[in-house]
Design a protein that fits this description.
The chain is mainly alpha-helical and 207 residues long. Helices cover 51% and strands 10% of the residues. Strands 1-2-3 form a three-stranded antiparallel sheet, with helices on one face. It is globular and about 85 Å long. It starts with a helix and ends in an 11-residue tail after the last helix.
């Protein structure tokens, strides 16, 4: 009877140890998942970093100096339109229209019409004046209709945009914590400040 009790006790202890090991394993998996979520696919630790307007301009100027015009345009699109990089990479020239306003002077205005990947929401957004001016002088790709394209004239993908942005930030001495994915949030913050504090109409923000 004694040995039987010992065996039962030993078996119970093994079950407890196995359960504890399972909990530990699940916790490790949970921590690993949190760690993976802690990094942005757009580069840098997943720390919310807000771009200042002057930092965006420094990035764009550096991109142009380095011959990475499309990556500079991508940053400007994300910041001025307050949109995600993935949606901006999808834009083609068919998503962008312009017309001329002649009253009160000759002025070109532009609009973007596209569908958001994440929410499938149809969007109609006016372009800022500097975006209109930039796109008006942007060379179109000879191989595709995308606004943002690689140096080989092919549509730019996420990995290329990430690689280019890191090189540009290093060249411009910008912090590596500034993520392309944070340009949208930063643009929204600037727009909200301009609208609430300075009472600037939403449609004229950064125009």
């Amino acid at each position: 009877r004694g040995p039987s009790v010992c065996r039962r006790g030993s078996s119970a202890m093994k079950s407890v140890e196995k359960h504890l090991a399972s909990i530990s394993s699940n916790k490790k998996a949970h921590e690993a998942a949190k760690l993976r979520k802690g990094f942005s696919k757009w580069g840098g630790p997943r720390v919310v970093s807000f771009w200042k307007p002057e930092q965006v301009q420094v990035f764009v100027d550096a991109a142009d100096e380095m011959g990475y015009h499309s990556t500079g345009t991508l940053a400007l699109l994300c910041f001025d339109l307050c949109e995600r990089p993935s949606d901006m990479l999808d834009l083609t020239w068919h998503n962008y229209t312009t017309h001329v306003i002649k009253s009160g002077g000759h002025k070109i205005v532009g609009y973007f019409d596209f569908q958001c990947r994440k929410t499938n929401t149809e969007k109609h957004i006016p372009a800022s004046t500097r975006l209109v001016e930039r796109l008006n002088t942007t060379r179109k790709s000879a191989l595709n209709d995308h606004i943002i394209y690689s140096r080989t004239d092919m549509p730019m993908h996420v990995g290329q945009a990430l690689h280019m942005s890191k090189k540009i930030k290093k060249y411009a001495n910008l912090s590596d914590t500034l993520s392309m994915g944070d340009l949208r949030r930063s643009g929204l913050k600037v727009a909200k400040l301009a609208k609430q504090v300075f009472e600037i109409p939403e449609e004229t923000i950064r125009s």
